[in-house]
Design brief:
This protein is an alpha/beta fold and 387 residues long. It has 2 domains: 130 residues, Alpha-Beta Complex (Aspartate Aminotransferase, domain 1); 243 residues, 3-Layer(aba) Sandwich (Aspartate Aminotransferase, domain 2), CATH 3.40.640. Helix 2 packs across helix 10. Helix content is 43%, strand content 15%. Helix 7 links the parallel strand 8 and strand 9. Strands 2-10-9-8-5-3-4 form a 7-stranded mixed sheet, sandwiched between helices. A 3-stranded antiparallel sheet has the order 11-14-13. It has 14 helices and 14 strands. The two termini are 41 Å apart. The structure holds pyridoxal-5'-phosphate (PLP). Pyridoxal-5'-phosphate (PLP) binds next to helix 3.
Amino acid sequence: MFIKKQRLLTPGPTPLLPRALHAMMASDIHHRTQDFIKLYPTVLRDLKDVYGTQNSDVLITVSSGTGALEASISNFFSEGDKVIVLSAGKFGERWVELAKAFRLTAVVLTAEYGDTVSPERVAQALTENPDAKGVLFQASETSTGAAHNVEAIAALTKPTGALCIVDAITGLGTMPLDIDGWGLDIVVGGSQKAFMIPPGLAFISVSPKAWEANASAKLPRLYFDLKKENKMAVKGESAWTPNVSLILALAESLKYIKELGMDNLVSNAQLLARATRAAAVELGLELFAPGSPSSSVTAIKAPAGMDSGEIVKGFRNQFGSIIANGQGTMKGQIFRIAHLGYFDFPDLFAMVAELEIILHSKGIPVEFGKGVAAVQRIYADAVAGKK
Ligand SMILES: *Cc1c(COP(=O)(O)O)cnc(C)c1O
């Protein structure tokens, strides 16, 4: 038998930054003591730096990403308010579910899985619904590997009374997001994505325009009351008992991201995504979202007649590598390879080599090394300063 190392190649949770993981051991501190009050404001400040905003407040919720998505509804709207929701996959559908759960009136713009909602359709919806109070969408739709044109959608929303609310849980760290420049009112992130730490924290930026909406928003809220959270944050504390271990991990990962530079984190993901697409094409595989592929995750169709679960199983059983199947009706059709966070080229060399072996073992004709060579070429060209 061979040694099999577990490798997480999934779009959340993602590989953990070792120094962040080690920092979690120091969690034997109390959150209402000076030990924590020294730590927390630094974390909030670094988070704001990494988000790249001067104007917005950036807060932390102790929840998975969905908790902060819920907060971005419950804190800024009242029952019956109209919102425009862009739904291009499972996470777009989550926005629709949340809007319904909180009794908002949702105007839903749907795109086929793998596709995105065009800015033209958003412009039309805004014209037809001048009373819309929010535009909700995913920067990167993790279930399909497609990315929305955030800048264009924000530019359309900015002059209206609507808030631009972005689920950037896999957008942060994989694409440029100019919060202040583009007018992104709410930007949600999650710890287990490009932030390189375990699940359990979510992040949310709140613009001055969003705080204004908050002042008259009547939906019920308690645990995810962002006004209360902000009031405590100013004092260097969290509203409720935080998961101290994850705050310690986040402190380290934010330091790492600042050292690396957020721009470099983004271009790292972009280059890995480009190389993955090139490898897929070399291996005769079809991309699921060729029109506007995201750099957070690449969704690849299984060869005709094959269940993508076979490939997922091959990765796990043969190599201990964990990759994601499709979600919902996409299950069995596609497999997804992540690039967000702590991924490097050797991870991708290995992944593509594994894929070649798995395809070969399933009887798909593969020339060994063809996909890997595509990745090597892109890496070598990038290092040589060529595009
Ligand atoms: C991971 C993810 C979420 C959040 O899911 P949780 O399981 O609640 O952390 C939301 N939106 C997108 C686009 C995601 O990738």
